[in-house]
Amino acid sequence: MQRALSVSRVTGNRGTFPDWYQAVVREADMAEVSPTRGAMIIKPWGYGVWERIQQTLDRRIRETGHDNCYFPLFIPLGFFAKEAEHVEGFAKEMAVVTHHRLKLIDGKLQPDPEAKLEEPLIVRPTSETIIGDAFSRWIRSHRDLPLLVNQWANVVRWEMRTRLFLRTSEFLWQEGHTAHADAEDARAETLKILEMYREFAETVLAMPVIAGEKPENERFPGADNTFSIEAMMQDGKALQAGTSHYLGTSFAQAQNIRFQDDAGQLSYCHTTSWGVSTRLIGGVIMTHGDDDGLRLPPAIAPRQIVIVPMLRDKPEDAQVLEYGQALVKALQERFALGEPIRALLDTKAQRSADKRWNWVRRGAPIIVELGPRDAAGGQVTFMRRDRLRDGDKVQSQAMTREAFLEAAPALLAEIQQALYDEAKARLDGNIRSDIVTFDELAEYFGAPVDEDEGGAFKGWVRAAWSRPTGAELDAVEERLKALKLTLRNAPMDQPQTCGTCLFTGKPGVEEILIGRAY
Amino acid sequence: MQRALSVSRVTGNRGTFPDWYQAVVREADMAEVSPTRGAMIIKPWGYGVWERIQQTLDRRIRETGHDNCYFPLFIPLGFFAKEAEHVEGFAKEMAVVTHHRLKLIDGKLQPDPEAKLEEPLIVRPTSETIIGDAFSRWIRSHRDLPLLVNQWANVVRWEMRTRLFLRTSEFLWQEGHTAHADAEDARAETLKILEMYREFAETVLAMPVIAGEKPENERFPGADNTFSIEAMMQDGKALQAGTSHYLGTSFAQAQNIRFQDDAGQLSYCHTTSWGVSTRLIGGVIMTHGDDDGLRLPPAIAPRQIVIVPMLRDKPEDAQVLEYGQALVKALQERFALGEPIRALLDTKAQRSADKRWNWVRRGAPIIVELGPRDAAGGQVTFMRRDRLRDGDKVQSQAMTREAFLEAAPALLAEIQQALYDEAKARLDGNIRSDIVTFDELAEYFGAPVDEDEGGAFKGWVRAAWSRPTGAELDAVEERLKALKLTLRNAPMDQPQTCGTCLFTGKPGVEEILIGRAY
Ligand SMILES: [Zn+2]
Ligand SMILES: [Zn+2]
To answer: Could you give the subunit structure recorded for this chain (chains A, B) (predicted)?
Structure first.
């Protein structure tokens, strides 16, 4: 089993995994806590990763036929009340706008009582209701279907206990919303998106995931089926990294989304929704980070190759800078992973050793240090961030300029693959399928530990279950909760036959993943 | 003088300019009014234009050294109270979040009194205060300066009377925020951005503008100087299309943004802010639209060349489609205006004549109609949207496939230029500089007309003024207001000497633009 990470180099002392995470977010200059309770400030390097996620995923969303739109931030309260399960699921975490003006009263600026809204507005926690309302106007006939839209937006779900990227009151995401003529079309869409997310997470984020269906108790409020991709973090916990929901006709009924078929008959549409968020950035950090900070997969690194010139306030500095500029230019003309290489010459006024370590902590995939000897000799000396050290010693290698330019695309592709392979081995090696009773499960995971205290790395258990529902499922949930465990998903990839249910002793109908989770 | 547009073809009857605008927004499928009062739904074609604006402007913002970040949507009320002019300027239009939970009380879902926030949160109308707070933490020494950030975000300013794109309670924008060591650096930034906006508006939007400084009474709340670009719409009114503010040290003092210079002395930073918004889309519509709907400059058209296959449910349809697909592919491999050509084969199940008119109304720059004869003969028959008609007659032209592929990049560049030239001639031809007294001004503009009633096209007046301030300026503003006129800006480009002030009779110190405005 993979040990929990030590945190010595990033945090200055050994600590828990949450300490390490917080230190990496800070030292990699990704984000910081904001003075607005529960929200975050995403700094340039963190936002650059989000922009890379947006660009690469947006391309996939378009290629599968979806159009980007923008819908209002504020949703009238009455819209939520139409779908009972949906509002129940979100009511406890909604930010409510009640006034549209401030006024100085008794020397203090406060909401103007005369500008109180007749109906409060909800800051969107998700947009099924307001988009469904538009769908009810846009859809007339079978020819308008499927209707496939997506939006990139901010959403707000009030959180009491927040952690940067993983759980914040405001976050950024994309939300896809589609309407179809029948269940078959809508289910196919739900699974197509699930597969899109899986491929995206594995190819772009180098983050292996298991795609599967969430159990009934973990469904999106109002959904018939919820599917997810689940990734294993370096502390063994699961991170739900994306979800895709088949909503049946419940939202269509609540909002009167109907179409006329060729026979002139009116029917309710079947709808879907799906999303991924800035939470993915937390997943990338906890999948690829190491003792020295972040390691970014080249596909999402805002800068893939960073060149640090070693300047000494001497005449030969000019030659080093010139050599560095030419190298950046030559790199930018080459392609890696299907796009022009993103190279940077870091000319900031700072000690070059500090710059190097900043880029190590930020996880730039390749860091080049250029000195006068490199410039004079036509050499390039560089470090691969994915294999920075041999033991404790930092490793670098040298090549001629021509050889480096030639090798750069393959090197970046190799780093992308190496990060994936490392994470894939961790995932595959840490799912136990030999645990078949609840007692064994309890014994394996041991007493629950406070999540801030670390604890031994455990991974997940994959076990047969009888897919209980209702009260029987509630009981399962309670027993797991006592161990701080949750049901993650029933993987799409299932065996032909199945053992006995770990919870009920009945014959199992499928296998399900169990683990601790974010 | 240019006549006001007739609206016959888009609206079905003659109407006013606002009627025409509304019809174009609807018929071009750009946006619609949302059920959330004052907000809009931006539909795929409208959002596609915004994405083009984002991509092309973002490139310019990066190239001038700015980094993208993301700051919280909600700003604690107390942050606004720190800068008196600023809060006064925005307090009347702020959306206020007061609760973080809903509860079912007496069978009705409402804000939970137990979840009332101690301090209300303001939905950002602009982010100087929360970004300034971050700057106060991020800036320590002269080496941290200049600090140059930008964000793409949604903002909310409560509006009672809204119009799609031009004035909505929620809109999308970019806001740049920078901090500098001295006034000189900050002023240079303010003007650099003003020039960036001018170049962007003219090159990308094909919308000629006049860059200049706003008079004191039109400054951003809290700013020392506000500069704008002003564009002339086809009804003669001015649209403020972008602003750039030099904020002096007032925000830095309110938020304690200080740096240590080399001598160890602490000084306040000089800050700037600047932005453009989805309002630009309204400007594009009112600059380039015509009787048939929208005309989009190729640089921002989501699709530059749209191919409508004329299908007849006959065997030769397959040949037409195949020919069309090959044509799209060949176009996409070519570059126009520095980017791959954005071509589309419209295979939607709809009558081809309807499709053609939809693309005319949406303003696709080149519309190709492909029939069996084109496919058989290797021909391409197309319409240029910028010169759709000769008199009332729709014009099309035919070329061989090879000639069309060869000509396409130049054709798109020519359309971009033609739209600019047409708008530039209108701007240049409709600024009167021979009006030198207030009586002449009043006579020229005539009695104020209700903006929904059209009225004759008037353009602007450019006149010398003595740059009055305080009460004297208030008086000028009042006199203009009675004529529904406003001071737009004092153009950057000023003559050596200046006449007598149109308002005060004193010697003029600069020339200023006067007009009706959005
Ligand atoms: Zn169907
Ligand atoms: Zn300076």
So the answer is: Homodimer.
